Automatic annotation (TrEMBL), chain A:
One GO MF term attached to the UniProt entry: branched-chain amino acid transmembrane transporter activity
Keyword annotations: Cell membrane, Membrane, Transmembrane, Transmembrane helix
InterPro entries: ABC_transp_permease, LivM-like
Record's protein name: Leucine/isoleucine/valine transporter permease subunit
Pfam family, one: BPD_transp_2
Protein's UniProt keywords contain Cell membrane: yes
Membrane topology: Multi-pass membrane protein
CDD domains tied to this protein: TM_PBP1_LivM_like (cd06581)
Keyword Transmembrane: yes
Record-annotated membrane-spanning stretches: 12-41, 82-104, 110-127, 169-188, 219-243, 255-282, 294-319
From TrEMBL, chain B:
Pfam families linked to this entry: BPD_transp_2 (PF02653)
Cellular localisation: Cell membrane
Native organism: Oceanibacterium hippocampi
Family: Belongs to the binding-protein-dependent transport system permease family. LivHM subfamily.
UniProt topology in membrane: Multi-pass membrane protein
Name this protein carries in UniProt: High-affinity branched-chain amino acid transport system permease protein LivH
InterPro entries recorded: ABC_transp_permease, BCAA_transport_permease
MF (Gene Ontology): transmembrane transporter activity
GO cellular component: plasma membrane
Keyword Amino-acid biosynthesis in annotation: no
Gene designation per UniProt: livH_10
Amino acid sequence: MRPGEALSIWRAMAIGAVALILLPFVMQYYTLTVLVIYGMLGLSLGLVWGFGGILCFGQAAFYGLGAYSYAIAAVNIGESSVPFILGIVVPALFALVLGAMMFYGRLSDVYLGVITLVVTLIFFKFMNATAGSAHVIGDARLGGFNGIPGYQTLNVPGSPDDYLYDDRLYIVCAVALLLVYGLVRWLLASPFGRVSVGIRENELRAELLGYDVRARKTLLFAVGGAIAGLAGTLYASWAEIVTPGLFSLGQSAEIIIWCIVGGLGTLAGPIFGAVALGYLKFLLGQQSMVDNSIVLGLILVLVVLLLPRGIVPTIRDLFFRTFGRRRRRSRRPARRQDNAS
Amino acid sequence: MDLAAVILVEILYAVASLVLIGAGLAVVFGMMRVINLAHGEFMMMGGYATIVAVNLGINVYVAMIIVAPIVVGLIGLVVERLVIRHLYGRLVDTMLATWGLSLLFIGLVTMIFGNTTTGISTPISGLTIGAYQINGYNFFIIVVAVILLLAVFAVLRWTRVGLVARGTMQRSDIASAIGHNTSRIYMVTFVAGSALAGLAGGILAPLVGLVPSSGGAYIAKAFITVIVGGPSIIAGLMSSAGLLGVVAQIFTFAATPVVGEVALLIAAVILLRLLPQGITGRFLKGRL
């Protein structure tokens, strides 16, 4: 870890904590909780794409898998501790297997995008077709298009009747987001993270220096899958129903839009993008003048054309230029030199 | 015997519809290395153009084969001039921008036509083979797909426009040095790809209940067919549509349509794992 890195991580977490404490004064817990969950989902792709250079079109697969794992396990077990862990472990293992298949096959860019997209579609099609009593895991009916309702939501570990909901669920999600953010920052500051960024910059060079690129990419992909799975688990507890819509193309698209709008190559960017666009979607949902997707689509096109580096890096550069501290600038997000923020 | 004939027709139909769905994307991706994720929405708008034209009293074939490609081609022209031309050479950025466009189109169409299912009836009646009934329209789709492939091949192979276009795609700097306007060639290619998407949308419109989000069902199939096919336009499209269509139909007959769709997707994943550059990245290299 570079000198000053630890301090910078603590400072960023403190700023995040203050924001998470202040936000409930202006928004309801119910809305805010899902925004925080979106933030975590954005973070997962921000890590894999922004720092690993792996453009995953199917981050929704891990999100949905986490939610479904949690729901199925919760129906069967009742108490939420084991389902919670399964909701993280199952998508992580799945990401590990999928990643190994892709990266040991030396697939890259577009082809990677197709495979992750296809896998998400397989889940979507399969889950939609699981109506009827033939599709059962333990006591849980998969329920096809209607999804799985009525499972045990998160409870205080050990006491199944003590549900975590509303403000308490918000606190759980907020703390989880802060912890995950801190851990990811730490991971990126560790040798593993530094090499991952090196691989993103130049895969061949990293390989010639003796690093096992395939194993490292696979591992980073699995970490991203675990975080997305955690987001899915929390979402399942918030929504109290899981449906195949979690695996839809629209969901995957949204995650990518968050990252692009917020700013790739940063961690704060995707979180900010997710929260801001999630809130915008919520506001747009309350009116019926303009269709929701017109606005989202327009934002995506305009950001790609006009702000290709995303909002957070642009603002940060503006900030540092105004206040005189020198920062290395680069035009394209994929070529960024500096580390997380 | 009757069953075999029915299965054969159904397989040919599955392949032909994959060819139709993929053709526009294949031209744009194969020639310009641009992945148009709004392709599905172009097809959806082709379908709507057809339905509107038919409701206005225009002959259904005219609506499908002439009106739909023209309307969508014009939309493609606007899109290319406003968005795509700024992003050539930036593969990921074009994908994201066109994804944004696809959302935008879904929203616009929803606002204009509402979120309801519309459709027209198939213009060709059913056909009886022995004890089985098959959709006569399937034959029309097979014929159109064959003509389409021949036409694209003929234009690229034997006309001056096709020659210039192929040259530009290989070395745009040389083409520009000997006096061709590359920006205009890219524009024409993109419009041609859009028109093909509109044609496909129009022709498939009588078979599906059209909703504004129908494009999503097409884009994945189109994307998979084109990427599995690899760099050559015609050879890639034919080989991958052939392979994936056969796999999907066999599993559809053996089990259910859902299993067939999933089998298609799994086949695509396995193929890409084995041939990361697509089928024509390994075989039939350098063909059209």
